[in-house]
Structures are given as C-alpha cells and as structure tokens.
C-alpha cells in the first residue's frame, strides 16, 4: 500500500491508501477479512471512486483504485 495523502482535521487523521499489488476491491476484501468494517462505499460503475473503511478502533481510512486501475 502507498499513502497518497494524509488529511488532518481536528484530532482525526485519515489515510488515503492505494494498493500496490492488488486491485482496490481485492484490498478492501482483504482488509475487511482482517477486521476492518465498511464505513462508506463511493465506488463508481466506471471503476473510479474509493471505499472508506474503519479499523477496529473506529479510525477511518480510504482505499482508492490502484495505479493500474487508473491507467
């Protein structure tokens, strides 16, 4: 995974992640299996968009399409 940008708002920190070796959807499935929960799904029919997940402590992070999916 590669962090594209880090957003800080108030006392919260959110990472936007881009998979390096998987597709966005494969990475989302892997993270949910590891304990993350789905918070918001902004995937679009054209393959764009992102998925916001939360870790077990409630910290949110987004998974964006991989570079290969953006090409």
Description:
- This protein has 71 residues and is α+β, with helices and mostly antiparallel strands.
- The protein has one domain (2-70): Signal recognition particle alu RNA binding heterodimer, srp9/1, CATH 3.30.720.
- The protein has helices at residues 24-33, 67-70, and strands spanning 2-9, 12-18, 37-41, 51-54, 60-63.
- The model has no long low-confidence stretch (mean pLDDT 88).
- Residues 10-63 form the Glyoxalase-like domain.
- InterPro entries: Glyas_Bleomycin-R_OHBP_Dase, Glyoxalase_6.
- This is Glyoxalase-like domain-containing protein.
List keywords for this structure.
single chain; 71 residues; alpha+beta; Signal recognition particle alu RNA binding heterodimer, srp9/1; five-stranded mixed β-sheet; globular; Glyoxalase_6
Order of helices and strands: EEHEEEH
| Rg calc | 12 Å
- The quaternary organization reads as single chain
N-to-C terminal Cα separation, in Å?
17 Å
β-strand percent reads 35-45%
Roughly how much helix do the residues carry, as a percent range? 10-25%
Find the count of extended strands (DSSP E, 2+ residues).
5
Question: How are the SSEs placed, and which strands pair?
Answer:
Blueprint: E1 2-9, E2 12-18, H1 24-33, E3 37-41, E4 51-54, E5 60-63, H2 67-70
């Amino acid at each position: 995974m590669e962090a594209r940008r880090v957003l800080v708002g108030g006392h919260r920190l959110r990472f936007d992640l881009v998979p390096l070796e998987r597709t966005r959807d494969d990475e989302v499935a892997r993270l949910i299996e590891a304990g993350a929960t789905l918070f918001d799904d902004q995937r679009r029919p054209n393959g764009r968009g992102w998925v916001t997940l939360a870790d077990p402590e409630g910290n949110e992070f987004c998974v964006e399409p991989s570079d290969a999916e953006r090409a």
